[in-house]
Design brief:
alpha/beta; eight-stranded parallel sheet; 15 helices; 10 strands; 12% strand
């Protein structure tokens, strides 16, 4: 990825809820507008993440691609390493590997309730690091692969973030309150050499506020109790959100969510205000990642967000 000048590097992060040809077209649009990274979630019952990533990497010229995130439970870590290595063999230097403990959206439909998610993540990371570095992991090896794949770890809890900061190449931060981002970034940077990919929704007008709020339903599923209390999401309301979310009824889930979630965790305001907020946080991240979930508005949202990020880059340059 380019780090030249004061331009803010950015990428897009898709849940594979759309047909693969459309995901490819949107990746190409993002690349034309300046995106450098395209991440695809591994949601188990959605389109297969590696099929989608293969299509994207073959249809674009320079985008870095990777799963964000996969987990140690729905796929065996050795199988995951082989899939990532296959992508990297196809497009050397253009592939990341992203790991996390997995959330309810991917694990619940599979009937999985991991007992040791953190330990499993650490073990899977170590095995994948060895395999993708040309070494053995237990009885497994990828003797055909000779490459270099940066590894990213995503997690909202401090324990996972500490591990990622010390061991990974990238820490993926999402659902992070904007007010807490600078301190979190300082903690991560003091613990190791990992760079920070910060993912945050942009809500720059009323329609985008309504659309973005729908996607905070996952906080009712997976966020720590302290986070839910902070935003006024009591247990009864969280249970209602959970039922609607797992049934795929995001509009219904959003009806039970406090709108204060947006102003805490998303970049909100007018386009100019959003650009100023991102520019003001420039020292707290190395890559801005735009989550994309709404099928009908993807093109316009990518275009509007690219313009906001270009403005943020100019503001950041002017402040230096």
């Amino acid at each position: 990825m380019s780090a030249a000048g004061t331009r803010i590097p950015w990428g897009v992060w898709f849940e594979p809820t759309q047909p693969v040809p459309r995901l490819v077209a949107l990746a190409a649009l993002a690349e034309r507008l300046g995106a450098e990274v395209r991440l695809v979630a591994d949601e188990g019952t959605e389109r297969d993440v590696y099929v989608a990533l293969t299509a994207i990497v073959t249809a674009t010229e320079s985008l870095v691609v990777g799963p964000a995130i996969t987990n140690p439970f729905s796929r065996h870590p050795v199988t995951t390493a082989a899939a990532v290595a296959t992508l990297a063999e196809m497009a050397p230097g253009r592939v990341w590997h992203g790991l996390g403990v997995g959330g309810s959206r991917v694990l619940a439909p599979l009937g999985l309730e991991p007992r040791r998610p953190y330990s499993a993540l650490v073990e899977a990371f170590a095995a994948n690091r060895r395999l993708l570095g040309g070494r053995r992991a237990g009885p497994a090896s990828l003797g055909w692969f000779d490459g270099d794949v940066p590894m990213a770890v995503a997690g909202r809890g401090p324990r996972v973030q500490r591990f990622a900061a010390a061991e990974a190449d990238w820490v993926i931060l999402s659902a992070k309150a904007l007010a807490d981002l600078p301190e979190t970034a300082r903690t991560i940077r003091s613990a190791g050499g990992a760079r920070i990919a910060w993912s945050a929704y942009l809500a720059y007008d009323d329609p985008e506020r309504r659309r973005a709020l729908r996607h905070f339903a996952y906080m009712a599923l997976d966020a720590p109790a302290g986070v839910r209390r902070q935003v006024g999401l009591d247990e009864l309301r969280a249970a209602r959100v959970r039922r609607a979310m797992l049934a795929g009824r995001l509009d219904e889930a959003a009806e039970h969510l406090p709108e204060s979630l947006l102003d805490l965790y998303a970049v909100t305001g007018t386009p100019d205000e959003c650009a100023a907020r991102i520019a003001g946080l420039r020292g707290s991240f190395d890559l801005f990642v735009l989550p994309m979930n709404d099928e009908e508005t993807c093109e316009s949202h990518i275009e509007s967000s690219a313009a906001i990020l270009a403005h943020a880059s100019k503001l950041s340059a002017a402040a230096d």
